[in-house]
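User: Hi! I have a protein structure encoded as tokens and I'd like to know what sequence might fold into it. I'm fairly new to this, so please keep things simple.
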């Protein structure tokens, strides 16, 4: 195992491994132990008591973080000409259709979110092998396939994130930046956790929130108390 740096040792020493922290305590502690030269992302990893292989236990959805993600989200709007002005005014970084489909075919994926309309989805099918693995395929469930392109673009820009449980039953999501105040990190985290609780599948048995870990890029993780949520 790699040797810990002095900073990493100091950070680890501040975490009580036997303690389950409240969301507020966790957010404050993560701020205290994060000392990177860049503005680190603060992430949650939530292990759910679901079997994601079963369709009736799939947990997937969207949440708007009250304080945004702190990240400048690059949005591509793949729309017909009549919707271009609307998408541009709402703040989309790239707007168009065929020229961007050609760019994606050529391997260009320098965006965070793609928003499109139902009539365009047919053209995106063949690009699934490029967009799918990168999590860029628009989906009506996450609000990225819609006729209300302007609202979809502004929602994403305001801090709407989508999440889904992975095959091991864990939801990973960024809930802010280390430069945020501890209150803002905690409020964003609570919004995500509340949304997950509301989405508990009826078919899920036993304990739903198994464990919650908060960490920042390169910081050790802090275990939160699921009961405090």
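Assistant: Happy to help. Inverse folding works backwards from shape to sequence: for each of the 229 positions I chose a residue that suits the local structure. Here it is:
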């Amino acid at each position: 195992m790699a040797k810990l740096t002095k900073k990493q040792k100091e950070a680890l020493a501040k975490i009580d491994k036997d303690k389950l922290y409240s969301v507020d305590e966790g957010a404050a502690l993560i701020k205290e132990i994060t000392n990177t030269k860049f503005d680190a992302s603060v992430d949650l990893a939530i292990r759910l008591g679901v079997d994601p292989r079963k369709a009736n236990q799939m947990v997937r959805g969207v949440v708007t973080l009250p304080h945004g993600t702190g990240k400048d989200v690059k949005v591509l709007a793949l729309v017909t000409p009549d919707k271009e002005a609307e998408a541009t005014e709402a703040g989309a970084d790239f707007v168009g259709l065929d020229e961007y489909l050609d760019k994606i075919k050529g391997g260009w994926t320098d965006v965070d979110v793609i928003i499109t309309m139902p009539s365009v989805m047919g053209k995106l099918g063949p690009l699934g092998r490029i967009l799918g693995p990168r999590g860029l395929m628009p989906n009506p469930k996450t609000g990225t396939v819609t006729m209300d392109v302007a609202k979809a673009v502004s929602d994403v820009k305001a801090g709407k994130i989508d999440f889904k449980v992975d095959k091991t039953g864990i939801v990973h999501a960024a809930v802010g930046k280390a430069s945020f105040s501890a209150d803002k990190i905690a409020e964003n985290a609570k919004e995500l956790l509340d949304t997950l609780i509301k989405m508990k599948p009826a078919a899920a048995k036993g304990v739903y929130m198994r464990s919650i870990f908060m960490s920042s890029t390169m910081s050790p993780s802090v275990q939160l108390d699921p009961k405090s949520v």
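A useful reference point when you look it over: Strands lie at 41-48, 60-64, 75-78, 94-96, 113-116, 160-164, 170-177, 209-216, 222-224. Feel free to ask if any position seems puzzling.
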